[in-house]
Amino acid sequence: MQPRLLKGSNASYFYFPDEESTIISRSKFSIVYLAAELESKQKVICKQLSPAMFLNQTAKLKFLIEASVSLQHPGIVKTIDLVVEEGSVFIIQEYVPGFTLKELIYNKKYYDYNFNTYFLKIIAETLDTLAYLHSQKLCHCDIKPSNIMVVEDQYGLDIDNPKIKIIDLGALKPAFQQGVLDTGGKTFNIMYGSPEQVLGFSELVGDHSDIFSLGLVLYEAIAKEPALNTSNPMFIKRIQTTVRVEKHYRFDDDVYGIISRATVKPELQKSVKLYSDDELRVLIIKALGKRYQSCADFKADLMSLINL
Q1: Rg of the chain, C-alpha, whole Å
Q2: Exposed site from 69, 77, 130, 172, fewest CB < 10 Å?
Q3: How large is the average pLDDT for residues 241-253?
Q4: Predicted structure pTM score
């Protein structure tokens, strides 16, 4: 197998594009490789963006790259370098050892109820990172278990004080702004999307949207199954915009109360199709006012359970 060399502004990097074992993930938006810095041989992540991410979307690509580089927080993966070569765009990011939250949720080792506090702490750490992101007037827009990495150090996973990193910023947008940067490029996962995202009200997408998504992640972390256990897009859309998240047998009342407050949906009395956009907008705004108003409020309630 022949390596491919990439010359960045800070260093040179290499990876093996034809070696399947080096491919971490593949989607219609990117291929993510395990790579290394040429001189130090230190592991890095090389994300090759699909043309779908930036074709006729120069402003979107510029925004994503500038935002990724500018965000400096221990809970956000670091963007190290950018390489544009032969019409392809590569983003070089730090390598984060550990497991995605999705991997941990479905690892039967952690099904025991005694690990619930561990998952609550992971969500609390994620809220700290989102609070920073929101302070920068940005919305992540695609919070889901596979986008949250739980960091492993030389001693393994820290059950008492877990550390996380959000590893994908591909759907990032300015909070509460009309969709100039929303057309084209990566979209959110509808399984975790807020009603305002699902219904296309981009000017209402912001802090409360990430809070909604993380509420669904909290549900999944404790229930060991997603709140929406279906693959039918139309069914998902109807549930995600109208049906209240039901209590799961693995929840106690306190956990369910937190999930319910994070995932408040508009109260619709009839089919979505029978409402005008203005009517839907009013109902969504009312729902936003009933959710947690900040990540700090959400975290405070979580910590009250953790510290029992």
Answers
A1: 20
A2: 69
A3: 89
A4: 0.91
